[in-house]
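Quiz preparation item.
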C-alpha cells in the first residue's frame, strides 16, 4: 500500500514509519511540520530508503496536503500529526485546537477528495476523561477535560462524521499512555529517566497516586498497522497495554533500574484538572486478532537503558527551547514543593 504517515518524525510516527518500511510491501511518505518535538534523527536508519519520502509540511496547509496525496497517489493515511502534551495545552491551548482539530479536518477532507481507501486517526484514551472505576469501551460518551484531550476528541468526532456522512472509510485507534525510545523528554517517563540520570529532582504531581495504563510504542504501532489493514471502516478501537500502575510506583521502578535514590522524587503542586485514572476495555481489538506483547517491566527496563545509552539523542533537546519550558512549568513548583 502507498501510505502517508503524518507526524512521522515524532515519537509514535517515527516508530510507525520504520515498522511499515520493514515490510517491503509498502511505500511511505512522511509529512511532518518539524515542530519542537519532531526529530529527523529518529529516522536516521531509513534515510535514503528507496520506498520512503520525506516532505516538510503542515497538515493545516491544504495546498501541501492535496499535492502530497496526488503526487504520491496515496492509498492509506495514518494521522499521527498532533500536539500531544497536556501541560503544554494548559500553557498554549490555541495550537492544540489548530493542529488536532483544524489540521485533522484539512487532512480528512483532502484525503476524501483524493479518493484515499483507508484513513486512520491516531487518538488517545484521554478523550474518555478521568475514569475513577471500571474501564471505557468504544461506545462510551467522550468527556475530555484538558485542552489537549478536548482537541483530540474534536478530531475524533470529525473523523467519525466522515463515515456517517460520506461513507469515507475511517478508523480511530485510542491508545493508552505510550512509552519507549525516542519520546520527547517532556513526558513523564523520559522526563523522569533523563532527570534521574543527571541527579535532578523528579517533579511528581500531587500525591503521585494517579493511575495510567502503559503501552509500549512498538505494541501501539503494531496495533495501528493491524487496524489499518484489518479494522472495519467507521469503527473505533481501544489499544491498551494492560499495565495499570500508579505514577509513584513507576517513578520508583525507574530509579531502581538506574540505581538512583528515591529521595530524587519531589512531590510538587498538581497539574490543574489532572485526570486521576485512565482505563480502557480493549476486547474489541482482541476480537480482530491483536493483543500487546511487551510486558511492562521489560519495556520500562529497555526504555531506561535506551535513554542511559543515548544521551546524545536527548541532551541537545534538553538544552534548547526545553529549558525555558521547564523553568516556566516546574521552576516555582520545585521551589515550593507540594504545598505551593
Ligand atoms: P504524561 O506523560 O504527561 O501523560 P498524560 O498526562 O497524558 O497521561 O503524564 C503521565 C502521568 O504522570 C500523569 O498522571 C501526570 C504525571 N506527571 C507527573 O507527575 N509529573 C510530571 O512532570 C509529568 C510530565 C507527568
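Solution:
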Amino acid at each position: 500500500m502507498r501510505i502517508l504517515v503524518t507526524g512521522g518524525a515524532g515519537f509514535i510516527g517515527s516508530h510507525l514509519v520504520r515498522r511499515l518500511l520493514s515490510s517491503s510491501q509498502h511505500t511511505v511518505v512522511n509529512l511532518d511540520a518539524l515542530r519542537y518535538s519532531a526529530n529527523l534523527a529518529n529516522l536516521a536508519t531509513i534515510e535514503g530508503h528507496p520506498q520512503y519520502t520525506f516532505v516538510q509540511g503542515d497538515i493545516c496547509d491544504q495546498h501541501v496536503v492535496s499535492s502530497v496525496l496526488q503526487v504520491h497517489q496515496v492509498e492509506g493515511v495514518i494521522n499521527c500529526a498532533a500536539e500531544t502534551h497536556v501541560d503544554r495545552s494548559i500553557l498554549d491551548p490555541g495550537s492544540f485546537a489548530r493542529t488536532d482539530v483544524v489540521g485533522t479536518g484539512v487532512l480528512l477532507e483532502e484525503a476524501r477528495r483524493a479518493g484515499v481507501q483507508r484513513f486512520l486517526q491516531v487518538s488517545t484514551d484521554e478523550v474518555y476523561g478521568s475514569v475513577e472505576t471500571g474501564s471505557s469501551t468504544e461506545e462510551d460518551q467522550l468527556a475530555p477535560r484538558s485542552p489537549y484531550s478536548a482537541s483530540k476528541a474534536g478530531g475524533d468526532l470529525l473523523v467519525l462524521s466522515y463515515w456517517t456522512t460520506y461513507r469515507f472509510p475511517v478508523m480511530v485507534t485510542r491508545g493508552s499512555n505510550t512509552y519507549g525510545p525516542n519520546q520527547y523528554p517532556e513526558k513523564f517517563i523520559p522526563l523522569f529517566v533523563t532527570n534521574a540520570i543527571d541527579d535532578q529532582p523528579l517533579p511528581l504531581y500531587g500525591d503521585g497516586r494517579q493511575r495510567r495504563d502503559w503501552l509500549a510504542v512498538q505494541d501501539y504501532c503494531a496495533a495501528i498497522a493491524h487496524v489499518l489493514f484489518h479494522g472495519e471502516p467507521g469503527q473505533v478501537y481501544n489499544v491498551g497495554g494492560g499495565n495499570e500502575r500508579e505514577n509513584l510506583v513507576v517513578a520508583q521502578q525507574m530509579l531502581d533500574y538506574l540505581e538512583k535514590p528515591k529521595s530524587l522524587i519531589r512531590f510538587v503542586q498538581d497539574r490543574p484538572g489532572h485526570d486521576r485514572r485512565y482505563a480502557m476495555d480493549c476486547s474489541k481489538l482482541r476480537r480482530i486478532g491483536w493483543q500487546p506483547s511487551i510486558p511492562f517491566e521489560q519495556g520500562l527496563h529497555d526504555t531506561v537503558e535506551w535513554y542511559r545509552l543515548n544521551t546524545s539523542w536527548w541532551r541537545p533537546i534538553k538544552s534548547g527551547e526545553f529549558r525555558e519550558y521547564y523553568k516556566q512549568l516546574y521552576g516555582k513548583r520545585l521551589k515550593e514543593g507540594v504545598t505551593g
